[in-house]
Amino acid sequence: MSPLHPAAPTALPLVDRTHERSDAAANRERILCAARRVLAEQGAAGLSMNSVAAAAGVGKGTIFRRFGDRDGLTEALLDAHTAELQDGFLSGPPPLGPGAPPRERLEAFMRALVHFEADHLELLLAAEHVGPHPPAAAPVYRTFLLHIRTLLSEIDPRIDAPTYAGLLLSAVAPANLRRLLADGGSSPDRIADAISALARADFL
Fold first, then answer.
1. Last residue of a domain, one of 36, 68, 100
2. Residue 199: which of 116, 111, 87 has the closest Cα?
3. 36 and 135, same structural domain?
4. What pTM value is reported for the model?
5. Segment 130-141, tens digit of pLDDT
C-alpha cells in the first residue's frame, strides 16, 4: 500500500467561495431559496428562470444578470450544497478526511456521496438537463473525480485509476440513483452499502 499523500486543496477545482457585499449576498440567497422551493414543489422539470423569478418576486432579467443562465443557477445551487461535503473530504476528520488508509477513505467518500445525492436528487437531475454538459463536467464533479482517482492511486499505483474512478462515479449518477430508488425498491443506505462494497473490492 502506498503512503498517504492527500491531494493538496490547491490542486482541486473547488466550489466557488467568492465573497460579496451583504446586500448582494442576501439577494443571491433569496433567489437560491426560491429555486430550492421550486425544486421541492415541482421537481427538476419545473425549474426554469421564469418559475424561479416568480417564486423570488424578481424579474427574470435579475436572475440572468446574477447567474448568467439556468446552468449558472443550478451550479450555484450545487455549490451551496457541496461545500460541506467538500470540506469533509479535504480537511474533515477521518475516515472521510485525511488520516485514514486510502481504501477506508474511498469507502467513506462513496457512502457520503450517495447520501448527498439522495438528499439533493431533484437538483442533480435538473443539472443533468441544462446545456450540453452533464453535472460531471461541473467543477465540483471534477473535484469528486480527482479525489477518487487520487485515493485509487494511493491504494495501488498499478490500478487504472482514471477508468475505475469514472466507473465508480457513474455508478451513482443521479439518473441511476433515481432508478434504484424508484424501481428497485432500494434505500440510500442499501445503495451506500453496495457502493461501499465496490469501493472495498480488489481492483487488480
1. 68
2. 111
3. no
4. 0.75
5. 554 444 445 677
